[in-house]
Write the structure tokens for this entry.
Amino acid sequence: MEVTDKHISYRIYLVAVLVFLMAIGITVKLTNIQWVEGDYYRKLAKERSVKNFVIPANKGNIYSSDGSLLATSIPNYKIRFDAMAPKIEDFNKNLQPLCDSLSQLLGKPSQFYKTEFLRARATRNRYYLVARNLSYTEYIKIKSFPLFNKGAYRGGIITEQQTVREHPIGLVAERTIGYERIRPNGTPDGKGIEWAFRDYLNGKDGKRLMQKMAKGQWKPIRDENEVEPQDGYDVVSTIDVYIQDIAHHALLKQLEFYEAEHGCVVVMETKTGEVKAISNLGRDKEGNYVETVNYAVAESHEPGSTFKLIDLIALFEDKVADTSDVFDSNGGVITYYNRKVRDSKKGGYGKISLGRGFELSSNTVLVQAVYNNYKNNPQQFIDHIKRMKIHEPIGIQIKGEGKPKIPQPGDKNWYGTTLPWMAYGYGVSMTPLQTLTLYNAVANDGEMVKPLFVKEVKEWNKTIKRFDKEVINPKIASQETINKVKAVLENVVKKGTGSKLYSKDFSMAGKTGTAQMGYSDKANLYYASSFVGYFPADKPKYSCIVVVHKPSKSKGYYGADVSGPVFKRIAQKVFTDVPSTNEVKSLEKNIPIQDKNYDTYFANSSKNLKTIPNVKGMSGMDALALLENLNVKVKIIGIGKVKKQSIQPGEPILKNSTIILELT
């Protein structure tokens, strides 16, 4: 019996020792956690339960040259409810008035909200969703409702804000206005003005301290932000919404008729280089034309006959040929190194002058003129291209400019046929915008200016940075040469390949181009049709280029037929519809840039309004936002400023009413 007791005692002692050792271990571990690793675990706990969330700053707006919105940041709000935050007496007292107010604003029955709030209180829901996709004015109203007006701690209201970027005029110049985004791998990316001017537009982000709740949800700790976001600056573009609308629809109509793959158009102010319109349309998978690629800026390709302007400038500058010099078109075919250069007209043009050869776009005449005079010294011809600064990128304000390709004598790809092929626009490569810049220089009496997309950065009505005219080359050629090429460019429209475009009502000058693409594979051969020039011919105000790729061969592919009518339509509409330069300047002085705080602008505009406001004279998208904030459905016809509204000012705002706005 005594032996058994001893065994039991030993076991008790052993268990006691083990328990004592475990207690020591636990004590050591707790001491270590509390004092040695305490800071680390406290920091980890705080990071996992309390965190600063970034509040993105509102981007600045992008405006057209006349003050219309092209891109803007619109706040979007979500309201949630912490059902356990209010005291029970506050909850019971304010529940019915709160539900009645929400019902009036959001349209659901008051009983629906009462049932939901009581259920949220019963289930201790601290993150119940009340409403989403609210405008600023709706958000302000909800904050003033009973119970919610007590704030986050006493009233339980939780506000989440998201900023949405909108392009009010939709497709028009969408690709040039551009975007900024984050790629799936986390790196930033973007295009157009949005991307190029992001340092001005983005502003500075704010911070808000939030606490983690159940189910991975986060709740703001305070009503106020730790760091308030600072809005970005506004960017004023050179785009004119009237000319842009004309150019966009003229191009779209032609692309649809010729079933083309894609095309672009650019309209530029001659003296300043300001891009007044730019449209880039290509087919999507459904066959619709949309803006996805900035062809005018990025697509470098063989220009074809529009390159022949360089031939004339070089020949006239070196005084080795003149417009009256006669060349034999040789039956429309001429051979160099066993390769043939052909005219589009079978049988050629017989013996004609150099000037007439340019007007009729004779390949054989222009090639002979260049080859005969520069075959022994091709570098002399290339040097003219370099002096005109068209062998290198222009260096425009937005990213993605395509590189021009100009072969150089001595390069491994310089052949005997290189020079004659260059003379009619093959073996070289330029973007439409680069080609337009050259023609604009001729229209501008030889001064080559850089295309301008943005003219200033503003904070409210204060100019932060101004972008003035930038001269690339003060004189690309002598005035004598400029006068000669101007005359033949005008004759192209009067009696040359562009004669179908001639109008006695207004003058134009320019050059047609029809370049074969994919000619290395005859099965895939197609055409790029172009027209580039300026108007009016005598006192050029605007230059313009139109390029259409892969038009239906069965319907036509010559530049005069496909691209020329787009040019004419733009010139005609600009002459008849667009205010003169002086009128435009006068308008610009009187049109203030809208309040950069977009939500404040519309909150103030629509405050307490119970009748339809007068929106005549406002830009269409501003009127749209104002009316939609009043819960009025809006239908817009046209682009620009409001000319007519279907519901007259002062009429009562009826539920589900629709107003039609006609814009010009």
